[in-house]
TrEMBL record:
The keyword Metal-binding applies. This is Phosphomannomutase. It comes from Caenorhabditis tropicalis. Keywords: Cytoplasm, Isomerase, Magnesium, Metal-binding. Alpha-D-mannose 1-phosphate binds at R22, R128, R139, R146, S184, D186. Its EC number is 5.4.2.8. Involved in the synthesis of the GDP-mannose and dolichol-phosphate-mannose required for a number of critical mannosyl transfer reactions.
Amino acid sequence: MTSQTSKTILVFDVDGTLTAARQQITPEMREFLIETRKRVPLAVVGGSDFKKITEQLAGHDKDLLLSLFDYVFAENGLLGFKGTEPYPVQSIQKAIGDDKLQELINFSLRYMSEIRLPVKRGNFVEFRNGMINLSPIGRSCSQEERNQFVIFDRENGIRQKFAEELRKNFGKYGLQFAIGGQISVDVFPTGWDKTFCLQYIQNHFDIIHFFGDKTAPGGNDHEIFADERTIGHTVEGPEDTKKQVEEVLGEGL
């Protein structure tokens, strides 16, 4: 690796960027990453937990996942690795306390119980290390039901209204609310968005390119996309990611 490329890193979102939403990476995209990494270091940052990211990018094989990237960040970087070495794990309950967490969860369950959707399933509240993931339809929905909700949400602004209510009631606790993936709202302490991972790489690289699909305000890629430490790229799916990476590489980074 030349000294030129050693000062540049490419950072990727997962859903809608390296994979179709909640789907596994294709062999072609994985091979593309392997070839790209021969030229420039790579990092991945997802809002999902480490298990889900491993499932999507490496078929449950942790060692394979860590071999594909120089840095791997789950839950926006609250759990992360440099190579195979883990960083300290952060915890939302330590940050804001269980009393406020329970107040948030109780409010969310009441709010979601009054939403009428085409279908509802289970797992409406998922507790992660660094965030609470709230899903009005429930994370145990099928792929077909997920696709149906995406259309319904686009037409009715279900998650947008939910996030606004959460912000109005719980913003005072130093929490942020972002529309995550296709079916949920992510809740996390202020500053614990995807920019959290930048502290681990900003001193090692002069140029940080970020690629993500939810880069508009309110999306969970927006903060890192707009951060002054990164060069942000909005992508429309894995094929577009490949195209834009090739353009960046073609410009000599």
